[in-house]
Amino acid sequence: MGPHALLIDLVAMDRPPVSIPRAAAIVALTLLTLAGAGRSASAQVELSGSWAARNHEDGMERGPGPYAVDYTGLPINDDARAKALGYSASQLFMIERQCGLWPPVYLVLGPFGMKIWNETDAVSGETTAWKIGAWEDRATTTIWMDGRPHPSEHAVHERGGFTTGTWEGDMLVAYTTHMKAGVIRRNGVPSSDQATMTTYFIRNRDLVTVLAILEDPAYLTEPEVITKNFQLDSAPMRPIGPPCVPGYEGAGSDSVPHYLPGENPSIDELTTLYGIPRDAVLGGAHTLYPEYRKTLRDTYVRPEHCVRNCGGPPR
Amino acid sequence: MGRSVRTVRPLLHAVGVALMTLGASGVALAQVESGRGQAPPTPPLTPRASAPIDLTGDWVSVVTEDWRYRMVTPARGDYQSVPMTPEAVTLADAWDPAADEAAGNACKSYGAAAIMRVPGRLRVSWADDATLRLDTDAGSQTRLFRFSPDQATPGPPTWQGESTAQWELPRTGRGRAGGPPGEPPGGGSLRVVTTNMRGGYLRKNGVPYSDRATLTEYFNVVQHRNGDWWLVVTAVVEDPQYLRQPFSVSSHFRKQAGGAGWDPTPCSSTW
């Protein structure tokens, strides 16, 4: 019997009167429950609102998109690397792939802000779900807060996955499973349908830092960790998203654009433009740690001037 | 009606009993929390004793973001995603690492506004009950986060500036993040504001910040489901001279069981 049932008991005047000890017990239990609930709720923080992205890191990655072969900073394995090198962005022209949408991790990979709101139970006021609004190329994320379990491992996988959330102190922790196979970088570095993502929403005053930790037994040798900052924005965001309407963009329907092994023409682009050694361009966990700088010291040649995608204000 | 009165009266009595019970328990709880009922007020806990999260230990940076700007020294003129003013661009275009080295300014890219982005290891410890100390092996720098502002020693700007710290607490939550396994984290963060910094580089290739810059940071810890502890540092640099808007980045570090890999190195302008 939940607290709502207790209240109904108390206001049902046409029922036989309850005994004083029982009534006292009921009332005390109700008040204690409410007091406890208040304490629990106050440890949480308000996340509702419009949050503008602060893209002062990974600017290329989030904005125009990464170079075709730039796997720097990714703890990928050989399978992921091979699949990524076979990817051609021309696949996105194919009608059947135009509306594929990016996976949930696009929240931190992409350039957009986030509009968050909560849905509440009409009687208790408790939050039943947090919603993160869609963008043109990412579906709405629903973070279920009502304690429901994740589906069976055999259940259908959706583009947006299935996400539940809990509060850990003042931090919202979301856990996503049942995603479709997708990418962890928009140049084709893959994620599998076995991947999971844990997302921590950390609010500090008017900033929210989202920490996303992806785990993928198929393609990652260790968790991929990404953070992104958002600033509370008084201008309301209007999330717009699917439905997506595909259209013919000139791609033929008789083949899937791709590169055969050893034929990706962009494999040395980062080396040519920025002097990054190929071993680093192709990623791997060993390239993520400070020790790797000792290797780079012997192999990296700094170009004298930046020649492409250099940023800075207009001149 | 009479039946209703008979029903309501015991209920009102019950409410009174319950409220008295609650009140008594509240008093009892307050007495327990204060130690004794009539004891003199205890002095406030020190910042160290009242820490809601545990930042101490050894942490390693895991460079998954801005890799090309952090793991190597980028080319002159590569300013991607930094909101620089035209004046800053002019200055950065004239970046001369050899001249910096010769002038004794090799630590320009290891100042407070940049050091958390430099790949390396952190060692966090309490210098005293009101000062948290953060050492970096990269550049062998030391930051002191002082919880008592009057401890600050005014003087000329330094690479690490003067940092004032305060705990930002959730309204409740008695757990202690970073504590023993199994203990639920209660949340909270460390807010650090740093001023009086000597002008330096946000990026190693001469992207400048001035001695008028202010750095605001939030330190949070997270325990992931696989048991790993992560330190997440959210930083905002405001500089009326060289930045068109606040520069906001977040950096993450994984906790290590010990000091493996600790490798103090001197500052370098070129590498």
Which structural traits does this protein have?
heterodimer, A: 315 residues, alpha+beta, 9-stranded mixed barrel, two-stranded antiparallel ribbon, 8 helices, disordered N terminus, B: 2 domains, 19% helix, 28% strand
Give a nutshell description of this structure.
Chain A has 8 helices and 11 strands. With 315 residues, chain A is α+β, with helices and mostly antiparallel strands.
Radius of gyration of chain B: 25 Å
For the secondary structure, the number of strands of chain A is 11
Mean pLDDT of chain B: 85
Query: Ends of chain A: how far apart?
Result: 69 Å
How much is the radius of gyration of chain A in Å? 25 Å
Spatial ordering of strands, largest sheet of chain B: 1-2-3-4-5-6-9-10-11
What's the pLDDT, averaged over the residues of chain A?
87
Distance N to C terminus of chain B: 88 Å
Number of strands of chain B: 11
Structural class based on helices, strands and sheet pairing of chain B: alpha+beta
In quaternary terms, these chains amount to: heterodimer
Number of helices of chain B: 4
**Adjacency order of strands in the biggest sheet of chain A:** 1-2-3-4-5-6-9-10-11
**Number of structurally distinct domains of chain B:** 2
Basic shape of chain B = globular
Q: Mind describing the biggest β-sheet of chain A? A: 9 strands, mixed, barrel
Number of helices of chain A: 8
Order of helix and strand elements from N to C terminus of chain A: HHEHHHEEEEEEEEEEHHH
Which overall shape of chain A is indicated by the principal axes computed on the Cα atoms? globular
Report helical residue fraction of chain A. Answer: 10-25%
Helix content of chain B: 10-25%
